[in-house]
Write a structure and sequence with these properties.
mainly alpha, elongated, 4 helices, about 160 residues
Length: about 160
């Protein structure tokens, strides 16, 4: 029963994390190049303000519960266990992209204004978009691996 509760919490949190990345990429990021610098700054600041605090809580909690799923997994030699490790590694990779690449770019955008936007803002935007897309698909792969973990886990726990 303990494994089932931990799996449920982990998959719910992973759904939220992956949903944030997917939703942003699917609905907005694929069109970023059509926005002017002013629109990009406005959109960027709005997204940053909406997501910074919640994601600081949701993502670490997600990783913690995914780790607990791996620790509680009863058969450490099974495919389900190895898929749980793969899912964990992938979501940690998404976190590293966030912390090492996306957040520094966000911090630049937060101080930009119409009068202070750098000349190379489009290159910065394109870098942000590339890594956002990469992070999105890494999180989707993590979600897929974690679903396999849940489907493969023993049903009597």
């Amino acid at each position: 029963m303990k494994l089932r509760v931990v799996e449920f919490i982990a998959v719910f949190l992973l759904l939220l994390v992956t949903g944030v990345f997917w939703g942003t990429w699917f609905s907005l990021s694929r069109s970023m190049e059509v926005f002017s610098a002013d629109e990009f700054i406005h959109i960027g600041k709005t997204i940053i303000a909406n997501l910074a605090v919640p994601m600081r809580i949701i993502m670490p909690a997600c990783i913690l519960f995914m780790l607990l799923t791996s620790l509680f997994y009863p058969d450490k030699r099974s495919g389900g266990f190895f898929f749980s490790i793969a899912a964990l590694v992938l979501i940690i990779a998404a976190l590293l992209i966030t912390l090492l690449i996306e957040v520094p770019i966000d911090n630049q955008i937060k101080v930009w204004s119409t009068g202070t936007v750098p000349d190379d803002w489009a290159l910065i935007r394109d870098r942000w978009e590339f890594f956002h897309a990469l992070r999105t698909f890494i999180s989707l792969a993590s979600f897929g691996c974690f679903i396999v973990t849940i489907m493969a886990s023993p049903k009597n726990n």
